Amino acid sequence: MSICAALIVAAGRGQRFGGELPKQYAPLNGERLLRRTLRAFCGHPKVRRVVVAIHPDDADVFAEVAAGFAGVTSVHGGATRQDSVRMGLEALGASAPDFVLIHDGARPMVSAALIDSVIAELRAGSRAADGVLPALAVFDTMKRVGADGWIGETMPRENIVRAQTPQGFRFQAILDAHRKFSRESLTDDAAVLERAQGRIVTVPGDETNIKVTTMEDLARLAAALTETRTGQGFDVHRFGPGDHVMLCGLKVPHSHGLIGHSDADVALHAGTDAILGAFAAGDIGQHFPPSDPKWRGAASDRFLRHAYDLLRERGGALIHLDFTIICERPKVGPHRAAMVASVARILGVEEGRISVKATTTEGLGFTGRAEGIAAQALATVRI
Ligand code: MG
């Protein structure tokens, strides 16, 4: 079976992007773009090795990005994309593969199906191609605009396509072409092979496989990847001596208190777990170990707020948080509106996103015997 390697080009500085780090290291839903790109190739069964051309300044952030992926190596790229590709190909040449896929690091949405189709076309050899290019049709009318800003002419678009990556090549053909035309400035690898009279065919590209160039591209991609999730939380605290209980951050007078390491706000504990659960971030005990004296008597609004802040750090937003408080006493109804207002204030969200309901268990079980209070919460988040 022929061997296929991938070369990811990630050495650019991305002047059009304007972030602290080059665009290929920008976070997308909590994960750097390049890591998502790497996953597509490292996880592909037909790709044997992956070489990434990086900028020497990015060695540390690249180590973080590549952590946990097997079969990935990096090589320092050059001043231009073309230089970086050539250096990557030379690095692969030490044990040359039959085919190489060359891909932009800033195209994180590349699908396994697109990689498959490029490899299949290379291997089939039915068109005896030296290169395979994923291409998309152009639907907008194309105009040539003069330096003065005036429209010069309308270009025929029938035979125009947009070139994407990964572009696949017979390894020796693309290496030879890059060596031969290293002094010419060409914008993609197909263009380099064209200069060497290589035969290149197209396969259908993929509209979702966009190249992130600007901050707006990144925002659009993040919006497209947004999903809605729910998380649930449940908690119980036992009654003990006292003259009030804390529920949803509100002090509610009662003949007993609730026993707990913190202020025993059973509803906020359930709410904290619900939010953490919605983005798979563990549970309240992990974030605030009861063994830690720091949390003794702590006001539980800090727990809820912490979970919410973590959610927002991951790019998430709270859509709705719905509580059910289960007890015979104290009566929740008279305090319900104040509880909603309290939770809304803790999180800084509008009250319409918070719901507090109450029920009894008809005298049955521990809540029915008024031994304690249980609470459930359901968080719905966009992330
Ligand atoms: Mg608790």
Summarize the structure in words.
It is a single chain. It contains twelve helices and 19 strands. It has 383 residues and is an alpha/beta fold. It folds into two domains: 4-225, Spore Coat Polysaccharide Biosynthesis Protein SpsA, Chain A (Alpha-Beta Complex), CATH 3.90.550.10; 228-382, 2-C-methyl-D-erythritol 2,4-cyclodiphosphate synthase (60s Ribosomal Protein L30, Chain: A, 2-Layer Sandwich). Strands 1, 4, 5, 6, 7, 10, 11 and 12 form an eight-stranded mixed β-sheet that branches. The mean pLDDT is 94. Bound molecules: magnesium ion. Magnesium ion is lined by residues 235, 237, 260, 266, 269.
Topology:
Layout: E1 4-10, E2 27-28, E3 31-32, H1 33-42, E4 49-54, H2 59-66, E5 72-76, H3 81-92, E6 99-104, H4 112-124, E7 131-137, E8 142-145, E9 151-155, E10 161-163, E11 167-170, H5 171-180, H6 189-195, E12 200-204, H7 215-224, E13 228-240, E14 244-247, E15 250-253, E16 257-258, H8 266-278, H9 284-287, H10 301-313, E17 317-326, H11 336-347, E18 354-359, H12 365-368, E19 372-382
Parallel strand pairs: 1-4, 1-6, 4-5, 7-12, 17-18
Antiparallel strand pairs: 2-3, 6-11, 7-10, 7-11, 8-9, 13-16, 13-19, 14-15, 17-19
Bound molecules: magnesium ion (MG).
Quick rundown:
The chain contains twelve helices and 19 strands. The chain is an alpha/beta fold and 383 residues long.
